[in-house]
Write a structure and sequence with these properties.
The protein has 459 residues and is an alpha/beta fold. Helices cover 25% and strands 19% of the residues. The protein has helices at 20-31, 83-86, 110-123, 214-224, 333-349, 357-373, 388-399, 406-421, 433-445, and strands spanning 12-16, 35-39, 130-131, 134-142, 145-152, 157-162, 164-167, 174-175, 189-192, 206-210, 229-233, 242-245, 252-255, 258-261, 266-269, 274-276, 279-282, 286-287, 300-302, 305-307, 322-324. The strands form six sheets. Strands 9-17-10-11-13-12 form a six-stranded mixed beta sheet, covered by helices on one side. It has a five-stranded parallel beta sheet with strand order 3-2-1-7-21, covered by helices on one side. Strand 1 (12-16), helix 1 and strand 2 form a beta-alpha-beta unit. The two termini are 44 Å apart. The model is unreliable at 1-5 (pLDDT under 50).
């Protein structure tokens, strides 16, 4: 749609969550002239990137009555993408040369990402808009506006009316546990990666890790340092796959998927191999869940598809008063949050208009039909994959902001390629010096940096 001709208006907006998506949403809303209140259940900004050694009482995260630990970060975690492509576009995620306590690596630790987000919040004075230790318990539409009910850590309740709500609560808290035939009678221990922190508890065990992408590749190698054996069940491997890896300690095997779990303690793989395992670790992803959201049945989650959502952001009949930032997973996450936030802010101010609810539903139904025709399962609706750049460029054009830099998308593509081909060393051995050079030249041309990192390639 073309930019609107309406007078620009200022809205009173609630942002749910002060992680990366909530912080950038708040900044873009404020820049557009809106007043913003951010609700955050933790004591600090950072969301997903706040590490806690605590884990939940239910290792699988299936008990609905369990006290929820919102962090899914494990102690050894480093980013799985280069820092240049991760940062917000006018606040690059570059090493802090003058602070020796910071992590200068190209693929830094989770602590460095948290420090970056804290720097961002301070730079743009976002923390003064955050209500810390305040949990949102209910959001519902009321007479064209939105009621937000919240409670503090001291159980003080509040009930407020906002013109709009932007949901930035993340989606790495509710574990998805893959079904394994026979697992109910299998006698061993089970844990989801959401509750994995350190390898110590797995010392001298035989461990089966389900999943061999990002967290699965990381956790299997981490556990192998102390375990007797680690066996990876990889859905992406052919049925006959059976391969021993010499790294890190010559006790790691890759198999095809699991066939069944047996009551004698064995796990049988589709390659015909069987191992007697002590623990199964599920690195199988997460489910979307918004327990605070009440839309009178209009919105639902079906096989992990949040529907209906136009372009993964606006529910047609409730737009623009309700929106979601950060729903799609993987890829150029922080930049996606930024571009989605610019769109939401511009639509709320009236500077940009949305299609009619009917037109948005037509577009949505067509997109569902396309996914089905391509054989993409419903549960992968919000995985953008290779179309992410096109998706973000479409939104950027809608709200008149800069398109995604080609070097950024190329870094993501090459980075994921290295992850798959060299999971042990992809963070410290790379083949894209040309893209590093292009990124830092871009930052310098925009006067966003003055110092280059030590790994910047020589000319």
């Amino acid at each position: 749609m073309a930019p609107a001709q309406n007078p620009i208006s200022s809205k009173h907006v609630a942002v749910i969550g002060a992680g990366a998506s909530g912080l950038i949403a708040a900044r873009e809303l404020h820049r557009e002239g809106h007043t913003v209140v951010i609700f955050e259940r933790e004591k600090q900004v950072g969301g997903l990137w706040i590490y806690s050694p605590k884990a939940e009482s239910d290792p699988l995260g299936l008990d609905p009555t369990r006290p929820i630990v919102h962090s899914s970060v494990y102690e050894s975690l480093r980013t799985n993408l280069p820092r240049e492509c991760m940062g917000f576009r006018d606040f690059p995620f570059v090493p802090c040369a003058d602070d020796l306590s910071r992590d200068p690596r190209r693929y830094p630790s989770h602590r460095e990402v948290l420090a970056y987000l804290q720097d961002f919040a301070r730079e743009f004075k976002i923390e003064e808009r955050v209500r810390f230790e305040t949990e949102v318990v209910r959001i519902e539409p009321v007479d064209g506006k939105w009621r937000v009910q919240s409670k503090t850590s001291g159980d003080l309740s509040d009930d407020e009316i906002f013109d709009a709500v932007v949901v930035c609560s993340g989606h790495y808290t509710e574990p998805y546990v893959a079904h394994i035939p026979g697992i109910k009678s299998w006698p061993g221990k089970q844990i989801h990666s959401h509750n994995y922190r350190v390898p110590g508890p797995f010392k001298n065990e035989v461990v089966v890790v389900i999943g061999n992408f990002a967290s699965g590749a990381d956790i299997s190698r981490d556990v192998a340092k102390v375990a007797k054996e680690v066996h990876i069940a990889s859905r992406g491997s052919e049925a006959g796959t059976y391969e021993k890896l010499s790294v890190p300690t010559n006790n790691l095997w890759i198999h095809s998927e699991i066939e069944t779990a047996c009551d004698d303690g064995s796990i049988v793989f589709k390659n015909g191999k069987a191992v007697h395992a002590d623990t199964v670790v599920y690195c199988t992803g997460y489910k979307y869940k918004f327990p605070f959201l009440e839309t009178n049945g209009y919105m639902s989650i079906d096989d992990n598809r949040v529907e209906p959502l136009y372009k993964h952001v606006f529910p047609p009949a409730l737009a623009p008063g309700l929106s979601f930032v950060g729903l799609p997973g993987m890829g150029i996450q922080f930049v996606m949050f930024e571009i989605q936030s610019k769109w939401v802010a511009a639509v709320l101010s009236g500077r940009v208009t949305l299609p009619s609810p009917e037109k948005m539903m037509e577009d949505l139904i067509a997109s569902y039909a396309m996914l089905e025709a391509l054989g993409i399962p419903k549960r992968h609706t919000h995985k953008l994959g290779k179309i992410q750049s096109n998706y973000l460029d479409w939104i950027a054009e809608e709200c008149g902001c800069q398109l995604v830099e080609p070097w950024r998308s190329q870094q993501v593509d090459r980075g994921y390629g290295r992850l798959v081909s060299n999971p042990e060393n992809y963070r410290d051995e790379w083949d894209d010096d040309d893209l590093i050079k292009e990124a830092y030249e871009d930052f310098a041309s925009k006067k966003l940096i003055s110092v280059l990192p030590s790994y910047f390639p020589e000319s």
